[in-house]
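[step 3/7] fold_predict: job queued, chain A
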Amino acid sequence: MIKHIAVIGSGTMGNGIAHVCAQYGNTVSLIDISEASLEKAIKTITGNFDRMVTKGIVTTADKDAAIQRITTYTKLSDGVKNADLIIEAASENESIKLGIFKELDSVCKADAILATNTSSISITKIASVTKRPDKVIGMHFMNPVPVMKLIEVIRGYKTSDEVTKIIFDLSGKLNKIPVEVNDYPGFIANRILMPMINEAIYSLYEGVAGVHEIDEVMKLGMAHPGTVAIGRFYRP
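[step 4/7] structure written:
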């Protein structure tokens, strides 16, 4: 049973994952090499919980209890040594991730599951630097994590059925919807999203419509929340 979750990386995705894991009763270790980044992450998590309190999604007592479940660490081995599940959410850089997983394999509990939040890097390749490829899996959360329901669950070549089931069960407990996707570049979310963004940029370049108009079409016609096509990438 998963009770203690370590999250590596305290940026946008990492602090969102830590938020959700703590919200639903798990002990959380949030790990980053920068103390300042960890302090910023806790401030962000607290602010996000405050908004949830204002909207009546959680109570103040729920918020305080969740934040108390999060402990920060700057030393990887200290943060992961008691974890049942480690979710890596560091930079989307293959060499960095491979280095992290190689180290994790030597400092984690023998039965710990190693997950990565990668949006595109092969789970099979990441698993290959460990001695537990059956316990390595992809958990691709969507941004913003506290809001978005989807988790893309990606099995590597040797990921076991048992580990996959554990991650599916945990995803449900986090109030998320897991969807199993095969280990191909970009998986599904980014494989479809990137061509869509490129086409939106070409539409702007060719003068088909302006930034505001393209975003309005995507929001009103395709039900994409917020600014999805151009506005967050293009600044005139």
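[step 5/7] annotate
The chain has two domains: 4-181, 188-236.
The longest strand covers residues 136-141.
exit 0
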